[in-house]
Automatic annotation (TrEMBL):
<dbReference type="InterPro" id="IPR014770">
    <property type="entry name" value="Munc13_1"/>
</dbReference>
<feature type="domain" description="C2">
    <location>
        <begin position="913"/>
        <end position="1042"/>
    </location>
</feature>
<feature type="region of interest" description="Disordered">
    <location>
        <begin position="1"/>
        <end position="62"/>
    </location>
</feature>
<dbReference type="InterPro" id="IPR052095">
    <property type="entry name" value="UNC-13_domain"/>
</dbReference>
<dbReference type="GO" id="GO:0070382">
    <property type="term" value="C:exocytic vesicle"/>
</dbReference>
<feature type="compositionally biased region" description="Polar residues">
    <location>
        <begin position="1"/>
        <end position="32"/>
    </location>
</feature>
<dbReference type="InterPro" id="IPR035892">
    <property type="entry name" value="C2_domain_sf"/>
</dbReference>
<dbReference type="GO" id="GO:0006887">
    <property type="term" value="P:exocytosis"/>
</dbReference>
<protein>
    <submittedName>
        <fullName>Unc-13 homolog D</fullName>
    </submittedName>
</protein>
<dbReference type="Pfam" id="PF06292">
    <property type="entry name" value="MUN"/>
</dbReference>
<feature type="region of interest" description="Disordered">
    <location>
        <begin position="1078"/>
        <end position="1098"/>
    </location>
</feature>
<feature type="domain" description="MHD2">
    <location>
        <begin position="788"/>
        <end position="898"/>
    </location>
</feature>
<dbReference type="GO" id="GO:0055037">
    <property type="term" value="C:recycling endosome"/>
</dbReference>
<dbReference type="Pfam" id="PF00168">
    <property type="entry name" value="C2"/>
</dbReference>
<feature type="domain" description="MHD1">
    <location>
        <begin position="554"/>
        <end position="676"/>
    </location>
</feature>
<feature type="compositionally biased region" description="Basic and acidic residues">
    <location>
        <begin position="46"/>
        <end position="62"/>
    </location>
</feature>
<dbReference type="InterPro" id="IPR010439">
    <property type="entry name" value="MUN_dom"/>
</dbReference>
């Protein structure tokens, strides 16, 4: 709380009389310089009183406080009636309260009490207002009455009965006991049961003896106010009694306003209606020397303000005052208003004047002002104010409006954008609206007053003053251009923040309270002010642009850009001076781009220099690239952000700007690749090969991460949005041939670097794989280990390396590494397999290689997580697999493969240029017999000189290792016949398993019999046994016994001739010199090839 001297000075200002305030020819204007900020407790003191505050306080007490103090002492001494509050205070309690409230010493209190006791006592009266009655009895034939009222002050009932016993009772009871000059009579209301009088009477018991003195003399009896309602006199007869109201004076409050039941004289007609009375104890004559002739209204205002200040000064909290007063203060105010006959209208007017003044210096809750405004408006509609009070009310309302507008002009400082301050602004605006809506204001201020326009003007004026103040605060200290630009930047920064607060906070308050779009008003005002300052500053920079100066301009541009974007929230657009502000910064744009590029490049180089090329994070969610890759993305991001910050409006210039930004990003990426390679070289010089491989893996991951960043660049820079903006000025081909081509070039560089690194990794792995494979091929190792043991070292190495690569390479690069590694592995296996095709133990070696190839395939397939089968099964792989498969087979298996190939050749051959042979064939499972009946041969080649042949058919079951015990059979020779008819049957005792063995077939060879020379070869045919009747379908034992004899199948087989040296299997068999069975079979087939006519030109 403030000191006592401050309180005294404030009270002196607040307690000016209306006459003093109205001494000026115009209403008091509240200068913005003297406007208080909500939360402060006092106004700024007058500088003229600062030199002697004690003297001023003494004068204030003598001239203002002591007269009011005497008035209160007089009121307490001569009080009458009860207060309306339930709590009753003694005279000493009231004295103690006012002594504290007025800060009077005990000596001052005693001195003033003596003065009051020496004054003339007042004349006490009871002011009774008869307002109306309702539901009274109807005494006339019409059912109505002509009621009037008689009022007087009477003695108590005991004295009244004594006096009435002396005379005959009469209906005019009042006239019988009181003289006519002490009876007050109201008007007569004709023919009504609900009369309305609204008449006021001043009642006094005795003019020579006051009412109070009379009551003091009566010790055991009580005086009363007795009122009767009587029917008006008729021409004949006496007035009719309608009812009475008897009130004891000692039970009355100082002010009463109630409905009272009309009582009967007897029990007849007990319900006689009600009467509305207003009663007040007043001083008919009061000593005028107490307050130097001031009116009671002025004293009431001063007392009220003093009580409020005293109450607030005792409060410990800083919460606003909500209109509460202590019981003593309320009691004294009620007594003083009643004794001086102050109407409720004057009391509410005094409260409004006092509270509205207190609002300007203390924290007063707005609900107090709302309540008083409502009361004043209510009374204004009900009764008329004296001229002087009318003028005071008008001046008070107008003055508060002016004060409120001053606060509105300073709303930025007084009501900051905080949750606690903005509701106060909203309340102030509502009060201003409420004042303008009152009839009192509209009547007392006839001049046109539009609050909406006044608030808008106050906002514009306050905005101009605020801007001027901020401009002065940010004035450059020197004439240096950079300092001038920095000062402008700080000023615009404050404007930007203020616009944000107006948009987000204050605009809601002004719109809801007074329908003023403060954001639009402020924005348009700032638009003009800022545009002027920006053009003025930029005009100083013409021809002097450099990098440092351009850097200081960039914050200015960003602030203007943010302010310019806020125009989207304007309710009414119109023309704005900052619409094309970007054009003023065109000279600085190249410097901004250069600054962004050079700064990013430096950051990237520093990031690579400190990068140890280790994975950033391992564990369940590994991050396989290094710190420099992350830093690079963070470094590139500001360039992308620069595009958003610039938001260049011109489409064509925006396209060129995008080209430049994309080019810079691509340059940074390419430079990063070169810098990273150099970093790898430096770190690899003194490291082991394993560490070098590790770093190489990290580099590959870094480059792959960077490639993914480049792929997102069109989205980050919003190429699609730029394309929409430039479609009318930039052709489709020009757009796509510029931006995407830049990106593709950078991506191609990244791709080459990634492939180069992967090739380096692949070469290392390929060398080790080749070493492992060649170790398997040494002759010394062939008999010493099994196939699995021989391939185990290679598989362990591959599993270890591939697992490491999978853990340390991102999936894309790992897959890229697998493909060349697989192809090279296949190539190495093929080279080793074909290097010494004639060496001994080739079959075992090829078996190992085939097993190794199968293991490699499973390793690279990785259960569907590695390379796809289409990639694995390349042409080289298929050729190697076929080669190893053949070389891994035994001679018997090779012969089986050969026969299967011949059977396939037989099945697809339809030409009978060498003739054909027809036969019947079947197999009987019951006795395990193969039955073949050679029917005939047709269109055989003439082998003899006579143009004929002597054919016979040789039947042989092959392969020989399956049918070792089965002899070769022959038909009879048919002389000189090219279409012989044999019709000979043969049976072979063979098992079903033999018939189903791989390559099992019946070889039919047609020969021309020569007596002296070797039989000539006519042709051969191969019949697969597994397809014959009786062999093809499986049967159980019971079915086999019940199965009838199998029907033989008639088969026509074209004869074929083998090609010369055309079979790789025979060549492989021929290479196995140490196997007699293989050599015998090859010899037999080579003999057939010599006899063959296939490929011989006729």
């Amino acid at each position: 709380m403030s000191s006592q001297s401050e309180q005294t000075i404030t009270r002196d200002n607040l307690l000016q009389t209306p006459e003093q305030e109205l001494g000026s020819s115009k209403p008091k204007q509240f200068s913005p310089a003297n406007v208080r900020k909500l939360g402060l407790t006092r106004k700024t003191r007058d500088r003229r009183d600062d030199h002697n505050p004690e003297e001023r306080a003494r004068k204030h007490k003598e001239l203002e406080l002591k007269p009011l103090y005497k008035e209160l002492l007089y009121t307490i001494t001569h009080r009458m009636g009860k207060p309306s509050s339930a709590e009753v205070f003694t005279e000493s309690q009231l004295h103690q309260y006012i002594q504290e409230a007025f800060t009077m010493t005990e000596a001052e209190h005693r001195s003033l009490m003596e003065r009051v006791h020496g004054t003339e006592p007042p004349v006490y009266c009871l002011m009774a207002t008869v307002k109306e009655a309702k539901e009274i009895l109807g005494k006339d034939i019409s059912g109505f009455s002509d009621p009037y009222c008689l009022l007087t002050i009477m003695e108590d009932e005991e004295e009244s009965r004594t006096r009435r016993s002396k005379a005959k009772p009469s209906k005019s009871i009042v006239k019988d006991v009181v003289s006519n000059d002490k009876i007050y009579e109201s008007e007569i209301k004709k023919q009504t049961l609900n009369p309305i009088w609204n008449q006021t009477f001043i009642l006094d018991k005795d003019e020579e003896l006051s009412l109070t003195q009379k009551l003091e003399d009566i010790k055991t009896n009580f005086s009363s106010l007795k009122r009767m309602i009587k029917d008006a006199k008729k021409e004949k007869g006496q007035d009719d009694f309608l009812g009475k109201v008897v009130l004891k004076l000692q039970d009355l409050h100082c002010t009463e306003d109630n409905w009272y039941n009309l009582e009967p004289r007897t029990e007849t007609y007990p319900n006689r209606g009600k009467c509305h009375l207003n009663l007040k104890f007043i001083h008919k004559a009061r000593d005028g020397t107490l307050s130097a002739g001031r009116s009671a209204y002025i004293n009431y205002c001063g007392i009220l303000q003093q009580f409020v200040e005293a109450y607030i000064s005792k409060q410990k909290s800083s919460a606003p005052w909500k209109g509460a007063l202590c019981g003593e203060a309320q009691t004294l105010l009620e007594f003083y208003a009643s004794q001086n006959d102050l109407s409720p209208f004057l009391q509410d007017l005094a409260k409004w004047v006092a509270y509205s003044k207190l609002y300007q210096s203390l924290e007063v809750d707005s609900s107090v002002l709302f309540q008083q405004l409502t009361s004043v408006e209510y009374h204004w509609r009900q009764q008329e104010l004296p001229h002087q009070q009318k003028q005071e009310l008008g001046d008070s309302l107008h003055g508060f409006l002016q004060y409120g507008l001053c606060l509105v002009a300073k709303y930025r400082d007084i009501f900051p954008p905080t949750p606690s301050a903005t509701p106060k602004l909203h309340t102030l605006l509502r009060i201003l609206v409420q004042i303008c809506k009152t009839q009192a204001f509209q009547k007392l201020n006839p001049a046109q007053f539009e609050l909406h326009d006044e608030v808008s003007d106050a906002i514009q004026t306050g905005t101009q003053e605020w801007f001027t103040l901020k401009k002065g605060l940010h004035q450059p200290m020197t004439k240096d251009l950079a300092e001038i630009v920095n000062a402008l930047s700080r000023l615009i920064g404050e404007v930007q923040e203020d616009i944000k607060h107006n948009k987000d906070v204050w605009n809601r308050v002004f719109l809801s309270a007074v329908q003023v779009d403060v954001f639009t008003v402020v924005y348009k005002r700032f638009d003009s002010l800022i545009a002027k300052e920006v053009r003025k500053t930029l005009s100083l920079l013409q021809g002097q642009m450099e990098q440092a100066l351009a850097n200081t301009l960039f914050p200015v541009y960003l602030s203007l850009q943010a302010i310019h974007k806020d125009k989207a929230f304007l309710k009414t657009r119109g023309s704005l001076e900052l619409t094309n502000f970007q054009e003023d910064f065109r000279d600085a744009l190249p410097y901004w781009l250069n600054q962004a590029f050079s700064r990013t490049q430096e950051r990237v180089e520093r990031a690579v220099q400190v990068d140890q090329l280790q994975p950033l994070q391992s564990g369940a969610v590994p991050i396989k690239h290094s710190t420099s890759a992350v830093d690079l993305v963070a470094c590139i991001q500001p360039i992308c952000h620069l595009w958003e910050q610039l938001s260049w409006p011109d489409p064509e210039e925006a396209f060129m700007l995008m080209v430049k930004l994309t080019e810079d990003v691509c340059k940074i990426v390419v430079n990063y690749c070169h810098t990273l390679k150099e970093r790898v070289r430096v770190l690899s010089e003194n490291s082991d090969p394993g560490s070098a491989i590790n770093m190489l893996c990290v580099v590959v991951n870094d480059l792959e991460h960077l490639r993914s960043v480049l792929n997102r660049l069109p989205t980050q820079l919003n190429w699609a949005g730029l394309r929409d903006r430039t479609q009318n000025v930039i052709g489709e081909s020009q757009f796509h041939n510029t931006l995407p081509s830049q990106l593709q070039q950078a991506q191609s560089v990244l791709g080459r670097e990634i492939r180069s690194a992967l090739d380096t990794l692949g070469k290392k792995l390929n060398t080790d794989i080749e070493t492992q494979v060649r170790n398997m091929s040494t002759r010394k190792r062939l008999p010493s280990k099994s196939t699995e043991d021989a391939a185990a070292p290679l598989m362990r190495y591959l599993e270890q390396e591939l697992q490491y690569m999978n853990e340390n390479l991102v999936q894309e690069n790992f897959n890229s590494l697998l493909t060349p590694l697989w192809n090279n592995s296949v190539k190495i296996l093929y080279q080793v397999a074909t290097q010494h095709p004639q060496q001994g133990g080739l079959m075992v070696f090829c078996q190992r290689l085939l097993y190794t190839l199968q293991c490699l395939e499973q390793c690279f397939l990785a259960e569907g997580n590695g390379l796809p089968e289409k990639t694995l099964h390349s042409d080289e792989y298929m050729a190697l697999k076929a080669h190893l498969t053949h070389n891994s087979l035994s001679s018997c298996q090779l012969i089986e493969k050969f026969l299967e190939r011949k059977i396939q050749e037989q099945n697809v051959n339809t030409s009978e240029k060498y003739g054909a042979v027809t036969l019947l064939a079947s197999y009987s499972r019951s006795d395990q017999r193969l039955r073949v009946e050679v029917l005939n041969a047709v269109n055989l080649l003439p082998m003899d000189s006579n143009g004929l042949s002597d054919p016979f058919v040789q039947l042989c079951l092959e392969p020989n290792h399956v049918f070792q015990e089965v002899e070769t059979r022959c038909t009879r020779t048919k002389s000189r016949d090219l279409n012989p008819l044999f019709e000979e049957a043969f049976e072979f005792l063979v098992s079903l398993d033999q018939c189903r063995a791989p390559g099992a077939c019946l070889v039919l060879t047609v020969l021309d019999h020569d007596t002296l020379m070797t039989d000539d070869f006519e042709g051969e045919a191969f019949l697969a046994l597994k397809g014959l009747p009786g062999v093809a379908r499986d049967m159980k034992g019971d079915e086999l016994s019940l199965q009838p004899e199998v029907t033989p199948a008639q088969i026509r087989l074209p004869l074929i001739h083998p090609k010369h040296n055309d079979d790789s299997i025979l060549a492989l068999l021929e290479s196995r010199r140490g196997e007699q069975e293989a050599q015998a079979y090859v010899k037999k087939r080579r003999q057939r090839e010599k006899q063959s006519q296939e490929g011989i030109q006729p």
